[in-house]
Amino acid sequence: MSKPVDNAVSTVRAYIETHHDAFLQDLAEWLRIPSVSAQPDHAPDVRRSADWLAAKLRETGFPTTEVWETPGAPAVFADWPSDDPHAPTVLVYGHHDVQPAAREDGWNTDPFEPVVIGNRLHARGAADDKGQVFFHTLGVRAHLAATGRTTPAVHLKLLVEGEEESGSPHFRALVEQHRDRLTADAVIVSDTGMWSEDTPTVCTGMRGLADCEIELHGPDQDIHSGSFGGAVPNPATAAARLVAALHDDHARVAVPGFYDGITPLTDRERELFAELPFDEAQWLRTAKSHATHGEAGHTTLERIWARPTAEVNGIGGGYQGPGGKTIVPSSATLKLSFRLVAGQDPDHVEKAVTDWVAGQLPAGIRHTITFGAATRPCLTPLDHPALQSVVRAMNLAFDQKIRFTREGGSGPAADLQDVLDAPVLFLGISVPSDGWHAPNEKVELDLLKKGVETAAHLWGDLAENWRDAH
Amino acid sequence: MSKPVDNAVSTVRAYIETHHDAFLQDLAEWLRIPSVSAQPDHAPDVRRSADWLAAKLRETGFPTTEVWETPGAPAVFADWPSDDPHAPTVLVYGHHDVQPAAREDGWNTDPFEPVVIGNRLHARGAADDKGQVFFHTLGVRAHLAATGRTTPAVHLKLLVEGEEESGSPHFRALVEQHRDRLTADAVIVSDTGMWSEDTPTVCTGMRGLADCEIELHGPDQDIHSGSFGGAVPNPATAAARLVAALHDDHARVAVPGFYDGITPLTDRERELFAELPFDEAQWLRTAKSHATHGEAGHTTLERIWARPTAEVNGIGGGYQGPGGKTIVPSSATLKLSFRLVAGQDPDHVEKAVTDWVAGQLPAGIRHTITFGAATRPCLTPLDHPALQSVVRAMNLAFDQKIRFTREGGSGPAADLQDVLDAPVLFLGISVPSDGWHAPNEKVELDLLKKGVETAAHLWGDLAENWRDAH
Fold first, then answer.
1. Residue A324 — pLDDT band, cuts 50, 70, 90?
2. SS3 category, B8
3. Where in this chain does the record put each Peptidase M20 dimerisation domain (chains A, B) (predicted)?
4. What pLDDT was estimated at residue B470?
5. How far is CA A266 from CA A269, A295, A302, A424, in A?
6. Residue B303 pLDDT more than 50?
7. pLDDT tens digit string along B160-181?
8. How high is the mean pLDDT of chain A?
9. pLDDT of residue B446
10. Which chain B residue has the Cα nearest residue A337?
11. Calpha distance A394→B203 (Å, rounded)
């Protein structure tokens, strides 16, 4: 009974072995382009990176490849319809821009001159995110080779943006502008990681994000704390009392309505989290922190993956120079951010926080509160058929049990979910040691192959098991 | 029965009228010296101011005048013993340095070119503090003229420092160094004000001051709030929770032991405060504040004069630039100051705060707490014989009921009280509109005369009614 699968696995592996050197040479050529979106003098490089990728995708077989302009850096779109009219449509997301990197930051080699050391390819972008975008090129070729098809089993689209490392400022508008071209039954994000080399995992969701700045005004200017202190409200004290009131004594967020609508963590999900080989002491070292602290009744992994938070990102008021200054300060500022989980509505949270803040302040303290653009949370249920396909494809590639994680951070994937009204799945093969945003970024060559294999197996499985998606 | 007093009053007034023009010319000469202690390029002017004053005091009649060096700006000491061996010794305190001033700050005239406009003398230092030091020169001469004495009725000493506007960094050491020369039964501070032109008052005390800086450390560097937020302690949150816990819901300081030892405000003192023509709306305008706020059960005047406070002078942590940054910050800093009232021991408060802070912080937040040099509170009881003398002398000068105030701020007077173990009395004739530290500083010429008159009446009264002081 396992013969066809075994055959598929070995056919895919053989195809990949044959083409692996050329694949790596191509990837190295792309990695040599320093597409640093945060640095204006690299803008031509970011454009060159987009052009290079569009050409490479055409060479891969995508009949349509386009460079899409934004007010910032360009994105690349590619489209390869299936000859199967019942095939589901899948949109793969990644980015072709990279973090800044310079030899003097601590790199052992030139960050833009890729080099293989042992079984690792070192270069800026090797893992984040060029390597993970690029495994889809060889992946879809291996899929065709193993199935004898001339078009993919799914209608395959790629959207590779050029501003992810700069906060994706134009991404949502781009997706809205091209909504008709981007329609999909599912989104596959290849810009995340796995638990570790030994524990392959698939991410099932990301937290959302709402953030605000609160300005508190007391006296019209700093006033003398001897002449007036103790008899007028102090905006720094008011800011501090707001922050203190944000959480109750169990570290739960105390803003009424904040938890409304949350999709509860199921017992099964909690069990799956608990099965992961989590080493809290090691995690604390990664967090550069000296104790855990968080919502009562939840483990650390639950706290960072599945529970919403209210965090102070910045606070400032009054005199912050050397020595002291005996004033009642005129103003104070708070920067707060809220990580959101599935079921939470950012607009509802924004209103709840706004109302709550207004009710917390003493007479004589005026305030403004300004929210930034929110990012919605996303979560794919464990029993979603597309998620099952990803798990099966990874299982074939890794020949190991695939476990589940979530991502505590927030990303542009949520914009795709929102605008396209499609579930978001994560196919990432990076590991924590890959050094995203750090010197000596690398990708494990064995994992890169597993990425190619997973992509090669995924499209057939999705088409077969999810034909009624749309 | 009132004949001798009337005679004394008119004799003093006649003497002052005769010498008033010369007095004003001398004061103007002194005010022309820009003795700005905060500006290093004015250091020669501060020295010139000290030399000028020493010479003027010798001309006034003080047999001993000395310029005392400090590691900063020099002070002036003058000593005029009484021929009455039973006379009490009085030390007058003031300062000869001034705040910075420049025409472009909003002055209508050159701040160092004194000018009389209407009944006001405008110049930097006119009220703070050269004018108030200088009324003692004509005052003691009028005292001698009215009493026919050749030496003052008290053993009169003056100490006029040169660094008050720079925080008196060397004052305490100076007083300790010259303790034997400065011994006194009472200290008279002429560096304060009255309630208003219409309501002459005498100040009976100043609050003390203890201040500290608290540094709170969480993660070893700023960390990602998505990856780690909600699961590790945030030092900005810890700082805020400390501040929030400083006060209970009645705005009382919640640090155990903070209120230990306080000399209670008597019913009589509360009545006297309440009798003052206090206009809260006007006070709020002066405070540039939009509401009152303070310890329950106390009026605004009680809060600023007679109750201790805990105030946040500065708070800072995490990202304070434009926009947002999704971090758990590595550290946060608090600057707190505590105004102290009579009976509170700064060392006890320092220990109470230190112990309390250590017990408030969650695991994983390390901290340091550093206190600056404290200033003790001072308070002279209403029935103190020297205070009664000041009130009677002012009453003769103003021909009005003299009321009582206190001062919410803190000053070097407390060092004199501590080192010399002498009660501190306040004889100040400045009014709130005089513009201390502001452009167009002025002194009311009528009040300046009242200051001279008060000084002229004070020494005889003190000698007569307080012969057993020492």
1. confident
2. helix
3. 205-362
4. 60
5. 5, 17, 11, 19
6. yes
7. 999 999 889 999 999 999 999 9
8. 95
9. 97
10. B326
11. 82
Average pLDDT of chain B to the nearest whole number: 95
Predicted local confidence at residue A3, as pLDDT? 57
Q: Which residues have C-beta within 8 Å of that of residue A245, sequence separation ≥ 6?
A: A254, A360, B244
Coil vs helix vs strand at A366: strand
CA distances in angstroms from B160 to B44, B62, B79, B141, B426, listed in the order given: 17, 14, 12, 18, 15
Asked if A367 and A167 count as a contact pair (C-beta separation under 8 A), the reply is no
Structure confidence at residue B1 (pLDDT) = 42
> Of A316, A460, A346, A440, which is closest to residue A392 (Cα–Cα)?
A460
The dihedral formed by the CA atoms of B77, B78, B84 and B85, expressed in degrees to the nearest 10: 30
What six digits make up the tokens of A274? 């608990």
Chain B residues with CB-CB distance to A304 below 8 A: 227-231
> Considering Cα of B30, then B36, then B40, then B41, what sign does the dihedral take?
negative
CA distance B282 to B300: 12
What is the C-alpha R_g of chain A? 25
CATH architecture of A3-206+378-465: 3-Layer(aba) Sandwich (3.40)
Under an 8 A CB cutoff, do B293 and A231 touch?
yes
Name chain A contacts of B303, Cβ cutoff 8 Å. Answer: 230-231
Provide the pairing of β-strand B223-224 with B155-161.
unpaired
Candidates B224, B242, B292; nearest CB to A231: B292
Selection from A372, A324, A370 nearest residue A210 by Cα: A372
* Total Cβ atoms within 10 A of residue A283: 17
The SS3 of residue A195 is coil
- In CATH terms, the fold of domain A208-262+308-371 is Alpha-Beta Plaits (3.30.70)
C-beta atoms surrounding A271 within 10 Å? 9
| Cα–Cα dist B68/B77, whole Å | 7
**Which amino acid is located at B301 in the chain?**
L
B360's tokens: 């408030």
The shortest C-alpha distance from B355 to chain A (Å) reads 20
Q: Is A288 on the interface with B (CB under 8 A)?
A: yes
Express each pLDDT in A419-447 by its tens digit. 999 999 999 999 989 989 889 999 999 99
Query: Using CA atoms, how far apart are residues B195 and B298, in angstroms rounded to an integer?
Result: 20
What's phi and psi for B313, nearest 5 deg?
-90, -25
Is residue A342 within 8 Å of residue A228, measured between CB atoms? no
Q: Does B166 touch chain A (CB under 8 A)?
A: no
What is the Cβ-side half-sphere exposure of residue B30, based on CA atoms within 13 angstroms?
Answer: 32
Q: Which of A381, A403, A380, A379 is nearest to A391 (CA)?
A: A403
> Encoding tokens for residue B1?
């029965």
How is residue B437 written in tokens?
């530290």
Alpha carbon A1 to chain centroid distance?
Answer: 38
Distance, in Å, from the CA atom of B387 to the CA atom of B382, rounded to the nearest integer, reads 7
Enumerate the domain spans of chain A.
3-206+378-465, 208-262+308-371
For chain B, say whether A292 makes contact (Cβ under 8 Å): yes
* Residue whose structure tokens are 């904040």: A258
Cα gap A78→A55, rounded to integer Å:
10
B194 and B132 Cβ atoms separated by less than 8 Å: no
**Is pLDDT of B468 > 80?**
no
Relative orientation angle of helices A3-31 and A445-465, to the nearest 10 degrees = 130
ipTM value for the complex: 0.89
Residue from A396, A463, A409 nearest A203 by CA: A409
Chain B CA closest to residue A241: B244
Name the B residues in 234-263 with CB < 8 Å from any A CB.
Answer: 234, 236-237, 239-247
**Residue A192 with chain B: CB contacts under 8 Å:** none
Interface of B with A in 396-425 (CB under 8 A): 407-410
State residue A8's pLDDT score. 86
CB A365 within 8 A of CB A162: no
Helix axis angle, A385-398 to A3-31, nearest 10° = 90
